Amino acid sequence: MQRAVLAAIAWVLTGTASLPDPTIDHVTAEAVALDANDPAHIQVGSLRYLSGWVLNSRNPRFGGYSALHVKGDTFAALADTGEYLGFRIAPLGGIEDIRFGRLPDYPGRTGAKSDRDSESLAIDPATGRMWVGFEQYNAIYRFAPGFAKAEAAARPAAMSEWPSNEGPESLARLTDGRFITIQEGKQDALEPHPALLFPKDPTDSDSIPIAFSYRPPEGYAPTDAAQLPDGRVAVLNRHFRLSDGMWAAITIFDPRDIRPGQTVPSTLLAEIRPPLTIDNMEGLSVTREGDRTILWLISDDNQNGIQKTLLLKFALEER
């Protein structure tokens, strides 16, 4: 199983492209503290900060990352432009084996960014297949390992009424083969956010989902989800407002508590606000290191000079 995923991500990293340009295709990583004013401040809620970096590159395709998959020291970050970045983090923190690429297919054909608004990513560890959720069209595509080709696509009827720019921001594949997607919606929504539990591959026409709902912390919208080793699902939530800045919150729920038409109960694990190091966090991946569960977060810098691409690493330490 692990070999399948490593092979898939290795394709993302190496592909068949020519040797990278040492200037344009370079990615740097600058280490950052969770609290610049107090480097000893590493605990926030149930999360212990382990390390983090600001990533930078001169490549115009860099940035805008809305989804993340981590396996060992290998990373695949998917942007909301249909572009992806594969890389490894070396033991001393350097970025190696850099690979920029673009999805081979996406819903629209006008050439606009909205045609390829890829916001979420899930991977089957057994086969290496990849599923991508697209906003604007409220579609889910299945890709062969390493994004080699699109194998299937669907615009599920249950997602047809979701707002075009607030759609399947979260997509998680459970170990039993089911899938969960949560509508991003608005961060000030009064009602819980619609969510779906697919019994199998959501691109299959006979995969009819259970509709439920998820309520994020007040003032937040869900931006990604990933299953923990114990079977529960962690959800990354984002707050973004010009008046008070950017915050992030991690919640957790048990998929066994999902009931049709009901709001699944969830628990807040941690909330990260300034002056702690934070940005527009949109991507979440879960790994295991020994007996520790690791949560990786990546931010979408919207490809502007004001925001940053942050990659943050936390250990889950529930009391």
Q: What separation lies between the terminal Cα atoms?
A: 32 Å
Low-confidence stretches: 1-9, 13-20
General shape:
globular
Global mean pLDDT: 92
The level of helicity is under 10%
Class from helix and strand fractions: mainly beta
Topology:
Layout: H1 2-14, E1 27-31, E2 43-44, E3 47-57, E4 65-71, E5 74-79, E6 83-89, E7 95-102, E8 118-123, E9 130-134, E10 139-143, E11 150-154, E12 168-173, E13 179-183, E14 193-198, E15 210-214, E16 221-227, E17 233-241, E18 245-253, E19 263-264, E20 266-272, E21 281-289, E22 292-299, E23 309-316
Parallel strand pairs: 15-19
Antiparallel strand pairs: 1-3, 2-3, 3-23, 4-5, 5-6, 6-7, 8-9, 9-10, 10-11, 12-13, 13-14, 14-15, 16-17, 17-18, 18-20, 21-22, 22-23
Summarize the structure.
The chain contains one helix and 23 strands.
Describe the structure.
- The strands form five sheets. Strands 1, 2, 3, 21, 22 and 23 form a six-stranded antiparallel sheet that branches.
- With 319 residues, this protein is mainly β.
- The longest helix has 13 residues, at 2-14.
- The chain has one domain (27-316): Neuraminidase.
- A hairpin with a 2-residue loop joins strand 21 and strand 22.
- It starts with a helix and ends with a strand.
- It contains one helix and 23 strands.
- The protein has one helix at residues 2-14, and strands at residues 27-31, 43-44, 47-57, 65-71, 74-79, 83-89, 95-102, 118-123, 130-134, 139-143, 150-154, 168-173, 179-183, 193-198, 210-214, 221-227, 233-241, 245-253, 263-264, 266-272, 281-289, 292-299, 309-316.
- Mean pLDDT is 92; it is low at 1-9 and 13-20.
- It is globular.
- InterPro entries: Phytase-like_dom, UCP031900.
- Pfam families: Phytase-like.
- This is Esterase-like activity of phytase family protein.
- It comes from Sphingomonas montanisoli.
- Residues 61-302 form the Phytase-like domain.
